[in-house]
């Protein structure tokens, strides 16, 4: 039993331990809050071999000895600003002195920026970093209270200094000199702060304190580390000009209180800033008050917002409302010769030129009639800046400096077209040309046209697979570090040799497990699949019904809740599939071996077994943990051939046929219920060989009957499991839903279809939509229907995981599947939500008690938030990876055949100076740009070039080539029209 | 090895999954419904979360510096208050409750007399200034009545009412200050006050509140914690090892419940120690004053309280 104690404390302490303050609620009511805290003497200092604090060993006994300024060893104790502005430095693997992180600092970071706090939290858990969190506010010697007239900031600074002083004396007291020996060398605790006033105060109190820059300069990897310092740290960014002399390019933001009040009063609107990828001078902010997003036109109106920021906008009078530009404006061409060193200065001639060019662009845009709310950004609620993958723009380098290592200011162009260029200072500029690098934005002043940032690290050469891969993973925030030791320790000790133990009543593996080894079970997967997480069987029953079973890898047998492996899997959320790499959610031993339902070996499984009538009606269903031995692992193709071969009459083939007939009936039923049959531009990439992984060609995926067979049974299993766990755990069941899309999403597509093709799209329900999509057929163009389906899909919302207790029961439905309830159960090897569903199902059938965390709604919600985000990111990463390989394949084809690649394409958008096309054979989209404006009819979605009119949905031929941007080395797919007219000269 | 292809296929084997198809890559304003919208909602809610206090941080400390199983400071004051036959002020951290006990005495209203035992009457009042927001609660307030009823039913089986037929015991509870654990403070204070009034009981009643944050049980919750985690109050009798009250107004899974319940019952023992010490000290001082009146009064032992 745990030790229960009562904390005693005399009343006299109340001055230090009680805190009283007044708080104003959202409604304007003033509430008095009284809080107390308990000060203690058992808060550990975290230093190894400390006489007093025995329970923690995070920090080495003598600190770090490498720094030349502190020969006796030292620990660093950074203040809040160090973490707020220099997180990249702290995260660098080269920066590894032992760090004492104070609770005061941690809480302040949390208060100021949640993303930084999360990064910091992750750091404290890493083995390589020696970071100890010291709860100074709870230790009696270091707790302080705010004095009269002291600002919270000053209070915290004082607390930090007090803790530093305490540490130094604590080290001294616990290492008394031993008689006869030289007095021990005591390591110093160094206060790391950027605040000069704080340093002065510290020195007065006899503490050692240095600035980050000074500290880093003394380290052995100083050159690399200095580049990581944020721009904020360097106050001499433009030493030649006085800061006051610079003219503001942007309006100032309103004070926070003003715009918060404005939002509350409904005069201002809050939302996420979305940059326009076709036109860098335009952005939009969807706000609840208007059905259309608020349009922001021009730099001043976007006012330093970066894609993803939460901003506050002011909407102009309706007279000034505009329609979005129907022209493509490329940042690279418009801003070509802008000078990085000087562009901050408005008075500068070149800066002026930029402005003239830009305003010309804005003026010439003749806007079509359809107006939408237009406004400007007046404040930023939250920046969502992260590290961006960029290329250095070689023209921004001062040519004389090309080989020197002096510091210079250069432009970095982000890979994503949604982001502005970033100005940064670096010493390594020449060596970074032609590389992919990671850059963080530090600030964006009113006087600076571009945001300022700093270099984080280089990823490698442009177009090298490693660099491209890593940049993809970083861009989509995919955790790709190898699994740590603590995680691998959770694997079974037998490793590869692990087998299902022989059947006995005593072994824990066999407890309550059904023996299904005799069943004729097989798996059907794509070719080369290593992580087989599902297998199937079917057999006729004597009563005329059919028994069908889905067997899913029993991952929850190996991955227990609340272990390092479990929390890692939860934070990864999903396995990420890139074209030539897979980033696993679980260690490979589990994913591709112990859990994988390989043929001819016994494996643990979680089975769902139905009794179905020949008409595929469910008679009953049971779930059980089981042991199976798969009899065969087919590819879709093999299974298809086997099924179609009339000479084969063996049991295995019979069961595939049985499954197939059932699947067809299930599918028919689903379709009748209004499920959607959607399409996506999916292609398959042929890789040359495993070594080079050079793409040879791209082809569209094929769908076979057997794909649908597997799919139907997985859906059936998922739906059945969802029902079961929702029934057992109405508050915390892990489910998946797909909300019906708002009707307005379809308006534009409906309009285009009606005007161009005279077709109607009924979006009143999923069933109606499915039916009307079937009607959208152009007899001459079989691919047209697929195109419409792709476009319709893009109008929909994405599906999401949710916790059953946190939303209304009427919103559980899955729109696309037309199922009232759904979850993910069938791929626990590669999706974390499935692991949770497994745990809940196994508790629901009484196999194992449910882990406590799955009873907590808050916990489930938190985990699913992460999983949802990871899921989305993983999909985007996968898609981007395919896109990259399609580019490579095109390039290869160009070179090999020496000829141009010409493909058929559909027009999907028209602009004043170009058309957007979709090449279905390659699954890519592209832009055909003309040098001058053409005759453009926005109403009818047509553009007339010479005497030829091109409209949306027209079939055209395009010439596709890949070329590199000369300045940034960024690869670009370039398209031009071949048919009906050749646009290369236009 | 061409699992590059393979794995891409696996991602599509659940081809019906729409999100796999919803390509947010293209510009969002034109054709696509803005499907980044859901993400935004989540992000925003997390910004709100930022301002909230951590219930249990990674160092194992709660927001007030206690660890999971540490109870707040307890103070028991048994000094005489006015005409009351017995009275006590009980403090758990920042929660303070004052209880006065009158009786056993003749019932005011005949209708309330019970022929074979004493009637227990509990009246509770919560001072308007006791909590952060000033709020008057009338005597008919549902919450007040409920608390009073809980106290009454807790003590009915403990007080030996059959010794006083046709009489009434009045318990007046006044909440002076509250910061979580109100019911536990009321019950503990009532126990001590009844003892100081000399009313015979079969045992002490010691109450402790407990809750579960994610998976970690906590004891003796503050208001801040009470608002955030599912919690329950257990009143146990340390000598007879019986439980006289368990209340829970939040939802908690039955497996978790058992754990917290056992823990809270265990914590009751710790509180019992405190109460016993306070009562002993008080009675010793009483004996001492009596001894000064009557020469050579006998020493009081711990006998009665084992």
TrEMBL record, chain A:
Q: Which GO terms describe its cellular component?
A: cytoplasmic exosome (RNase complex); nuclear exosome (RNase complex)
Region (Disordered): which ranges? 326-349
Q: GO annotations under biological process?
A: nuclear mRNA surveillance of mRNA 3'-end processing; rRNA catabolic process; rRNA processing
Q: Which UniProt keywords apply?
A: Cytoplasm, Exonuclease, Exosome, Hydrolase, Nuclease, Nucleus, RNA-binding, rRNA processing
- The portions of this protein that span the membrane are none
PROSITE patterns, per the entry = RIBONUCLEASE_II
| Cofactor section | Mg(2+)
Locations listed in the record: Cytoplasm; Nucleus
Q: Highest taxon of the source?
A: Eukaryota
Domain PIN as annotated: residue spans: 74-200
Q: Which family does it belong to?
A: Belongs to the RNR ribonuclease family.
* Alphabetical list of PANTHER family matching this protein: EXOSOME COMPLEX EXONUCLEASE RRP44 (PTHR23355:SF35), RIBONUCLEASE (PTHR23355)
According to UniProt, the name of this protein is: Ribosomal RNA-processing protein 44
Species of the source = Gymnopilus dilepis
Lineage summary? Eukaryota, Fungi, Dikarya, Basidiomycota, Agaricomycotina
Automatic annotation (TrEMBL), chain B:
Query: Could you mention a single GO BP entry for this protein?
Result: nuclear mRNA surveillance
**Entry annotated with the keyword Cytoplasm:** yes
Q: Which family does it belong to?
A: Belongs to the RNase PH family.
Query: Where found in the cell?
Result: Cytoplasm; Nucleus, Nucleolus
Q: Which organism is this protein's natural source?
A: Gymnopilus dilepis
Q: Name one GO molecular function term.
A: RNA binding
Gene3D superfamilies tied to this protein: GHMP Kinase, N-terminal domain (3.30.230.70)
This protein's name: Ribosomal RNA-processing protein 41
Oligomer status and interactors:
Component of the RNA exosome complex. Specifically part of the catalytically inactive RNA exosome core complex (Exo-9) which may associate with the catalytic subunits RRP6 and DIS3 in cytoplasmic- and nuclear-specific RNA exosome complex forms. Exo-9 is formed by a hexameric base ring of RNase PH domain-containing subunits and a cap ring consisting of CSL4, RRP4 and RRP40.
Q: Which keywords describe this protein according to UniProt?
A: Cytoplasm, Exosome
**What is the taxonomic lineage of the source species?**
Eukaryota, Fungi, Dikarya, Basidiomycota, Agaricomycotina
UniProt GO cellular component terms: cytoplasmic exosome (RNase complex); nuclear exosome (RNase complex); nucleolus
User: What sequence ranges are listed for the domain Exoribonuclease phosphorolytic?
Assistant: 70-200, 203-266
């Amino acid at each position: 039993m745990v030790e229960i104690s009562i904390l005693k404390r005399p009343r006299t302490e109340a001055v230090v331990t009680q805190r009283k303050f007044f708080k104003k609620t959202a409604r304007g009511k003033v509430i008095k809050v009284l809080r107390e805290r308990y000060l203690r003497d058992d808060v550990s200092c975290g230093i190894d071999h400390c006489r007093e604090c025995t329970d923690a060993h995070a920090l080495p006994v003598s600190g770090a000895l490498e720094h030349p300024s502190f020969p006796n060893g030292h620990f660093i104790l950074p203040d809040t600003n160090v973490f707020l502005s220099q997180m990249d430095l702290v995260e660098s693997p080269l920066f590894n002195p032992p760090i004492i992180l104070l609770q005061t600092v941690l809480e302040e970071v949390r208060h100021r920026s949640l993303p930084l706090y999360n990064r910091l939290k992750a750091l404290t858990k890493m083995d390589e970093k020696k970071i100890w969190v010291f709860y100074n506010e709870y230790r009696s010697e270091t707790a302080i209270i705010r004095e009269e007239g002291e600002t919270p900031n000053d209070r915290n600074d004082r607390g930090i200094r007090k803790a530093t002083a305490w540490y130094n004396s604590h080290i001294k007291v616990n290492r008394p000199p031993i008689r006869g020996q030289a007095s021990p060398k005591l390591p110093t605790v160094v206060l790391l702060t950027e605040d000069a006033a704080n340093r002065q105060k510290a020195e007065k109190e006899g503490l050692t304190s240095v600035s980050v820059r000074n500290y880093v300069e003394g380290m052995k990897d100083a050159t690399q580390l200095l580049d990581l310092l944020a721009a904020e740290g360097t106050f001499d960014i433009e030493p030649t000009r006085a800061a006051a002399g610079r003219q503001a390019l942007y309006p100032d933001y309103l004070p926070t209180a003003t715009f918060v009040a404005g939002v509350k009063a409904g005069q201002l609107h809050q939302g996420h800033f979305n940059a326009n990828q076709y036109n860098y001078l335009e952005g939009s902010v969807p706000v609840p008050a208007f059905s259309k997003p608020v349009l922001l036109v021009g730099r001043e109106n976007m006012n330093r917002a970066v894609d993803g920021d939460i901003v506050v906008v002011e909407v102009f009078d309706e007279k000034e409302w505009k329609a979005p530009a129907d022209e493509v404006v490329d940042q690279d061409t418009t801003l070509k010769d802008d000078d990085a060193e000087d562009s901050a200065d408005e008075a500068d001639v070149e800066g002026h030129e930029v402005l003239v060019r830009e305003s010309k662009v804005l003026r010439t845009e003749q806007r079509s009639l359809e107006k939408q709310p237009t406004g400007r950004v007046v404040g930023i609620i939250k920046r969502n800046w992260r590290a961006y993958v960029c290329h250095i723009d070689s023209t921004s380098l001062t040519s004389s400096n090309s080989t020197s290592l002096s510091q210079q200011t250069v432009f970095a162009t982000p890979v994503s077209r949604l982001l502005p260029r970033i100005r940064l200072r670096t010493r390594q500029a020449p060596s970074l040309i032609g590389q992919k690098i990671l850059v963080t934005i530090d600030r964006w002043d009113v006087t600076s046209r571009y945001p300022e940032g700093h270099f984080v690290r280089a990823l490698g050469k442009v177009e090298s697979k490693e660099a491209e891969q890593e940049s993809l993973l970083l861009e989509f925030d995919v955790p790709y570090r190898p699994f740590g030791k603590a995680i691998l320790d959770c694997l079974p000790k037998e490793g590869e040799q692990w087998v299902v133990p022989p059947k006995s009543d005593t072994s824990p593996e066999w407890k309550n497990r059904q023996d299904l080894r005799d069943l004729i079970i097989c798996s059907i997967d794509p070719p080369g699949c290593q992580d087989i997480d599902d297998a199937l069987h079917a057999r006729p029953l004597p009563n005329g019904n059919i028994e069908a079973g889905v067997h899913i890898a029993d991952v929850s047998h190996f991955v227990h809740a609340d272990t390092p492996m479990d929390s890692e899997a939860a934070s990864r959320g999903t396995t990420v599939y890139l074209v030539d790499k897979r980033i696993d959610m679980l260690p490979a031993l589990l994913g591709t071996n112990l859990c994988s339902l390989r043929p001819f070996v016994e494996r643990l499984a979680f089975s769902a077994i139905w009794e179905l009538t020949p008409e595929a009606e469910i008679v009953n269903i049971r779930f059980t943990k089981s042991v199976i031995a798969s009899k065969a692992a087919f590819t879709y193709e093999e299974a298809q051939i086997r099924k179609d071969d009339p000479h084969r009459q063996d049991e295995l083939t019979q069961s595939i046929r049985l499954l197939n007939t059932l699947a067809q009936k299930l599918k028919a039923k689903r379709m009748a219920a209004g499920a959607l049959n959607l399409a996506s531009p999916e292609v398959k990439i042929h890789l040359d060989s495993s070594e080079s992984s050079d793409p040879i060609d791209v082809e569209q995926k094929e769908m076979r009957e057997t794909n649908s067979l597997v799919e139907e049974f997985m859906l059936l299993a998922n739906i059945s499991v969802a029902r079961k766990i929702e029934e057992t755990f109405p508050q915390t069941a892990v489910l998946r839903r797909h909300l019906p899309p708002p009707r307005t999403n379809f308006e534009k597509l409906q309009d285009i279809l009606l005007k161009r093709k005279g077709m109607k799209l009924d979006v009143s329900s999923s069933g109606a939509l499915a039916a009307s999509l079937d009607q959208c057929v152009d007899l001459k163009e079989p691919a047209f229907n697929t195109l419409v389906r792709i476009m319709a899909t893009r109008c929909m919302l994405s599906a999401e995981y949710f916790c059953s207790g946190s939303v209304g029961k009427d919103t559980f439905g899955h729109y696309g599947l037309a199922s009232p309830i759904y979850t993910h159960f069938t791929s626990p090897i590669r999706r974390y939500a499935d692991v949770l569903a497994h745990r809940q199902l196994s508790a629901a059938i009484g196999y194992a008690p449910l882990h406590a965390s799955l009873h907590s709604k808050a916990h489930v919600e938190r985990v699913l938030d992460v999983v949802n985000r990871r899921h989305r990111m993983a999909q985007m990463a996968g898609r981007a990876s395919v896109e990259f390989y399609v580019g490579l394949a095109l390039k290869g084809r160009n070179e090999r055949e020496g000829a141009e690649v010409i493909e058929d394409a559909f027009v999907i958008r028209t602009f004043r100076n170009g058309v957007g096309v979709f090449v279905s054979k390659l699954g890519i989209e592209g832009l055909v740009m003309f040098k001058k404006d053409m005759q453009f009819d926005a109403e009818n979605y047509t553009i007339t070039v010479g005497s030829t009119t091109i409209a949306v949905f027209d079939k055209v031929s395009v010439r596709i080539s890949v070329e590199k941007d000369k300045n940034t080395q960024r690869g670009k797919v370039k398209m031009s029209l071949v048919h009906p007219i050749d646009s290369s000269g236009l | 090895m061409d699992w590059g292809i393979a794995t891409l296929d696996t991602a599509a084997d659940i081809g019906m999954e729409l999100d796999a198809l919803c390509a947010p890559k293209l510009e969002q304003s034109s054709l696509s419904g803005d499907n980044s919208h859901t993400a935004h909602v989540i992000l925003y809610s997390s910004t709100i979360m930022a301002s909230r206090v951590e219930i249990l941080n990674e160092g194992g400390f709660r927001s007030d510096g206690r660890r999971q199983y540490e109870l707040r400071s307890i103070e028991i004051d048994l000094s005489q208050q006015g005409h009351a036959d017995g009275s006590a002020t009980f403090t758990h951290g920042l929660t303070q409750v004052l209880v006065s006990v009158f009786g056993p005495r003749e019932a005011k209203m005949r209708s309330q007399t019970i022929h074979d035992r004493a009637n227990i009457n509990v009246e509770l009042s919560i001072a308007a200034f006791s909590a952060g927001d000033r709020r008057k609660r009338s005597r008919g307030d549902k919450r007040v009545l409920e608390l009073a009823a809980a106290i009454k039913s807790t003590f009915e089986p403990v007080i030996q009412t059959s010794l006083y037929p046709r009489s009434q015991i009045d318990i007046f509870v006044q909440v002076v200050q509250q910061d979580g654990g109100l019911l536990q403070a009321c019950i503990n204070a009532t126990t001590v006050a009844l003892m100081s009034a000399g009313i015979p009981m079969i045992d002490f009643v010691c109450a402790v509140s407990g809750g579960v944050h994610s998976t970690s049980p906590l004891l003796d919750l503050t208001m801040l914690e009470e608002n955030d985690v599912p919690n329950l109050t257990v009143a146990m009798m340390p000598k007879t090892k019986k439980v006289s009250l368990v209340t829970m107004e939040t939802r908690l899974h039955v497996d978790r419940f058992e754990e917290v319940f056992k823990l809270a019952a265990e914590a009751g023992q710790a509180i019992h120690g405190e109460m016993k010490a306070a009562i002993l000290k008080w009675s010793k001082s009483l004996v001492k004053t009596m001894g000064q009146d009557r020469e050579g009064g006998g020493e009081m032992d711990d006998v009665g309280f084992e």
